[in-house]
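## tool: complex_structure
## caller: assistant
## args:
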Amino acid sequence: MTSSNSSWSFVFVTHLKRDFLINFRSLIDLVSIISFMFLIIILFILGVGPFKEKLEIIGNAIIWVGLILSIIPSLEKTLQKDFENGWFDQLATSSIPLEIVLLSRSISYWLIVMIPFLFAAPLFIILLNIELKAVPWLLLTMTIGSLAISLIGLNGASLILGAKRGNILLPILIIPLVIPILIFGVGVNEAIKMEADPISNLLLLVAFTLIYLVISPFISALLIRIAIAR
Amino acid sequence: MLERHSFVINWLANPNRFSKLTNKLQIPLLSISTIMILLGLYYGLFDSPKDYQQGDAVRIMYVHVPSAWLASFLFLSLAISCVFYLVWKHPLADLISNSIAPIGAVFSILTLVTGSLWGKPMWGTWWVWDARLTSMLILFFFYLGYILLSNAFERKIDGSKSASVLAIVGIINLPIIKFSVDWWHTLHQPSSILRMDGPSIDKEMLLPLTLMMVGFSLFSLFLIIINVKTKLLEKKCEALILKLNLKEFS
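## result:
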């Protein structure tokens, strides 16, 4: 295969389709993410107490924390299977750049996370009494933020390839890196609630996501090459 | 210039030479750092002025500031030695970063603990979610992640490279710690030593603080050297056992 741009985009699209279909047809990810998120929200509401004023204050934060925590458990599986059955070894010896494969994989993971989330969003919004004018902003920031979280998450998943007790390690490695996304994402939604200008926080959120979009595939590819060499 | 640097690095990279050099350094390092810390404690606790606002509580600074400085500096050196390990693949660099990590983690805990002890009388609370404190806590989690990840594999050597990548990524936290007091309005006071217009701290406070800083740094260097030497010996033991087993086998 010649390494021209057109063949790279072909590789990207093919892998995107493959990974998306694998995850979509198994349905376990979809169900686990959505139910996990519901349970986190329920835990929060029961812990705080069902008072409308309190929930108004922390509603945005609950949804964001729910999103981050519900993404993490299914992350390990995204790379583990292909690593164990030798798919990555094959890719690494072929002329297909691993970076493109990993970029497509994080984007397919992002789509997998976003589909259940967008379907469930109306319910969350009703459960947490979020104002109608804040809803488009919430969905927008969630969409951008979850892309960044998927990219970071894939880095984390490639860090623990072949480790024992990797699934316990994963949250410790990912959550410190996700913090800026949480801060700026919640910042936008809080600004909307206070009727302030959300644009600076939004720009920072987008900037972080774009930076991750550029560097994360390279880091993941480096880590997978390290993991293969073990 | 570059050649000379690489010569120095190569010269030190030999484990035997490293042991010889550090054998000579060990005792002076320990004695000098002990003397400096004792002197610094004396000056800091008995012979330096009270702060006009904070009173005697300001003396926590003489432990708090050096450990905070070392926690960040050790993370930087950890990341640098990880770069050395990833690029030149020298096993000694890996041993060094493995030895730095727990010491840095302890210093970051020490920073947080002394900071909250200082915060109680000054701010009226053990902990505030201020940018400086939070980023320091995150630094601790980076240390923790490094230690856990490098020990998460069947063979120790397997985790080293992945953990090195993590440490290098973690460097982005250091400028956040450094500038958090300037970027956000926080309870934590801004820097008073490394400033563009010279230190704004009182001269009599600067003396014990410098003594403590240098003492702490030398002491942690001593600890790192001991750690590295222990790990080198462990490796030698492993190699010996392997050799014996091979002999029996043949």
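## assistant note: The mean pLDDT of chain B is 84. The interface with chain A takes residues 138, 141-142, 144-145, 148-149, 152-154, 158-159, 161-162, 165-166, 169-170, 173 of chain B (CB under 8 Å). Handing back to user.
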